[in-house]
Design brief:
It contains 11 helices and 12 strands. By secondary structure, it is of the alpha/beta class. It has a single domain, classed as NADP-dependent oxidoreductase domain (TIM Barrel, Alpha-Beta Barrel). Strand 10, helix 6 and strand 11 form a beta-alpha-beta unit. Helix 1 runs parallel beside helix 9, helix 5 runs parallel beside helix 6 and helix 7 crosses helix 8.
């Protein structure tokens, strides 16, 4: 597995990580034992970045990751997030995005306990709190770095001007946003341009389009009742049926190369620059091994051009985000 520098502050990670949101049931029922084995198998395959958040499973995501990493903690980069929604100590959501300094300090202590660790390698503000200047939030985060409780800082789903302000307060190592052949607005909204100008790494979550680009989602009716994808506009029936045209085109190119659609989609993300990281999520070792194999798929220039032109040739229907994600692009 290729290792890359995550920004310019000193953090290093595997180019491909593991997104841990689905390990506790966000996309349907999950087998906890298999989730633990998936994390451990990822380490065996050279994956070092494991990305979770406090509200994934109401703390259960952090706790599962902490158990899975027992005895292996020093070999990995633990990334977690705070403030996407305000939570009490019982894991109940009691408010929206919260970036108040006192909440930042309480959240990091809670995550340290949940993860059973003495430091967090990469700590993200999950969503910007519109009531709190980002300078106040990152002032508190900078203090956590100085105290050794956090090593490096990140921020998720923000506009370029917010990236600049946060980075000026306490240096960022990573910006995390959705990015894939299914969601390419980071190329045109100034985010990628800004992180590259400032020497910040870019972590692409949902690089498989929340599983859509694998070809495994052919109908909205196939999604479990508790599957979060049901709230996303691109997965609504009228949109999903039309968006399958993109999946068909990707599948044709993948077949010609002798790789799976998932591997092709991941290889495309990783080929966009050595400052970009992909964190596909999966709940099984089988899919994990398929995803990790994508890191060794080399795409030639004609293939990259063909994939790049898809955004112009295939119209996508529906917004990539849900109206419920109120803190996005703060």
């Amino acid at each position: 597995m290729e290792m890359r520098s995550v920004g310019s502050q000193g953090l290093v990670s595997s180019a491909e990580g593991l997104g841990c949101m689905g390990l506790t049931g966000s996309y349907g029922a999950a087998d906890e034992d298999e989730s633990v084995r998936t994390v451990q198998r990822a380490i065996e395959l050279g994956v070092t970045m494991f990305d979770t958040a406090d509200h994934y499973g109401a703390f259960s995501g952090e706790r599962l990751l902490g158990r899975a990493l027992s005895g292996r903690r020093d070999a990995v980069v633990v990334a977690t997030k705070f403030g996407g929604a305000e939570m009490d100590d019982e894991g109940r959501t009691i408010g929206g995005a919260n970036g108040r300094p006192e909440y930042v300090r309480a959240s990091v202590e809670r995550s340290l306990r949940n993860l059973d660790t003495d430091r967090i390698d990469l700590y993200y503000q999950h969503r910007v709190d519109p009531r709190v200047p980002v300078e106040e939030t990152f002032g508190a985060l900078g203090e956590l770095v100085a105290a050794g409780k956090v090593r490096y800082l990140g921020i998720s789903e923000v506009r370029p001007d917010t990236i600049v302000r946060a980075h000026a307060t306490a240096p960022l190592s990573a910006v995390e946003s959705e990015y894939s052949l299914f969601a390419r607005d980071m190329e045109s909204n100034g985010v990628l341009e800004t992180v590259r100008r400032l020497g910040i790494g870019f972590v692409a979550y949902a690089p498989l389009g929340r599983g859509f680009l694998t070809g495994g989602v052919r109908s909205a009716d196939s999604l479990a009742e508790q599957d979060l994808r049901r709230i996303y506009p691109r997965f609504q029936k009228e949109n999903l049926d039309s968006n399958l045209a993109l999946v068909e085109r990707i599948g044709q190119i993948a077949a010609g190369l002798g790789v799976s659609s998932a591997q092709l989609a991941l290889a495309w993300v990783l080929a966009q620059g050595d400052d970009i990281f992909a964190i596909p999520g999966t709940r099984t070792r089988r899919h994990l091994e398929e995803n990790v194999a994508a890191a060794s798929v080399a795409l030639d220039v004609p293939t990259l051009r063909a994939l790049g032109s898809l955004v112009e040739d295939v119209q996508l229907f529906g917004d990539r985000v849900s109206a419920m994600d109120t803190g996005i692009q703060g």
